[in-house]
Amino acid sequence: MTSAPSPTPTPGVGTGRGPGSDRVLAAAQAALAAEHAASYGYGVIGARTAAARSAEAKEAYGGHLARRDALTRTVRELGGAPQPAEAAYRMPFPVRTPADAERLAADIEDRVAGAYSDLVRAAEGPLRREAADALTAAAVRAARWRGTGVAFPGLTERAGQAQPAQHS
Question: 90 forms bridges with which residues in the sheet?
Answer without folding.
Answer: 2
